[in-house]
Design a protein that fits this description.
InterPro entries: Menaquinone_biosynth, MqnA. This protein has 248 residues and is an alpha/beta fold. Helix content is 35%, strand content 24%. The structure holds the ligand C=C(O[C@@H]1C=C(C(=O)O)C=C[C@H]1O)C(=O)O. Residues 10, 12, 14, 38, 56, 74, 80, 82-83, 103-106, 144-145, 148, 175-176 line the site of the ligand C=C(O[C@@H]1C=C(C(=O)O)C=C[C@H]1O)C(=O)O. The site of ligand ISJ has 18 residues, from helix 3 and strand 10.
């Protein structure tokens, strides 16, 4: 029998609707599931430690082989709420930006927007651990995931990256997609897709299991994150990847 498919998913609240249906689903018999932050699982897929991951789209050019295996993604076609540049000062007064070590797509998107859309003259600062306390004065910070939902309560200026991308390109943005580094059996792909869809049809149950005291999860799951990988999202993804491949 073929070995189990190793699957890595993002550990943030935005992924809970996609993972909800895996429990008690026959696909679980075919796979081993682990969760971590996006930059970590990106490295696992690049290194071949896993077969499938909900990886940041920005790392696709680094994969020798990439197959999009599901019709669901972590995307947005308006403000996403959890991928933002946070600041104490207006955009053009920012001098330095702390980058989120957990991210790959949003760091690349931020750099693109800073250069091509906002046209800012700023210094980027890499981070390796907790850095949100450095977001003050003219030092701004990119924060993603649940930590971004927390940062919304602290920073007076919030620049939403998905919203800026939409204004810049008129296309939706895909932060992460289910990508495999080898061809997988059709039977697995069909079961995987079916499992992904269950939570999206049962959002009240997903929210009841993951309540948040700081952000309205119903708004997050229905108006911020957009899960279906539609043709427009694929177009947005292609546009982003081609920017990256042209050296942006
Ligand atoms: C919308 C989000 O998208 C995330 C952003 C990612 C990135 O910047 O590399 C990767 C995975 C997604 O979970 C978020 O985490 O808030």
């Amino acid at each position: 029998m073929e070995r189990k498919v190793k699957v890595a998913a993002v550990s943030y609240s935005n992924t809970r609707p996609l993972l909800y249906g895996f429990r008690n689903h026959p696909v679980m018999e075919m796979m081993e599931l682990t969760v971590d932050y996006p930059a970590k699982i990106a490295q696992q897929l690049i290194d071949g430690d896993v077969d499938v991951a909900l990886v940041p789209v920005a790392i696709v050019p680094k994969l020798k082989e990439a197959h999009i295996i599901a019709d669901y993604c972590i995307g947005a076609d308006g403000p996403v709420a959890s991928v933002c540049l946070f600041s104490d000062v207006p955009l053009h007064e920012i001098k330095r930006i702390f980058l989120d070590y957990q991210s790959r797509s949003s760091v690349a998107l931020l750099k693109l927007l800073v250069k091509e859309y906002w046209k800012l003259d700023v210094e980027f600062v890499e981070t390796t651990g907790h850095y949100q306390q450095f977001i003050k004065g003219t030092d701004a910070g990119l924060v993603i995931g649940d930590r971004a939902l927390e940062q919304r309560l602290k920073s007076p200026y919030i620049f939403d990256l998905a919203d800026a991308w939409m204004k810049y390109t008129s296309l939706p943005f895909v932060f992460a997609a289910w990508i495999s580094n080898r061809a997988l059996p059709k039977e697995f792909i069909n079961a995987f897709n079916d499992a992904n869809s269950i939570g999206l049809k049962n959002l009240p149950a997903v929210i009841a299991e993951n309540p948040s005291p700081i952000y309205d999860m119903n708004i997050y799951y229905t108006q911020n994150i957009s899960y279906p990988l539609t043709p427009a999202k694929r177009q947005g993804m292609q546009r982003f990847i081609s920017y990256l491949m042209n050296g942006n």
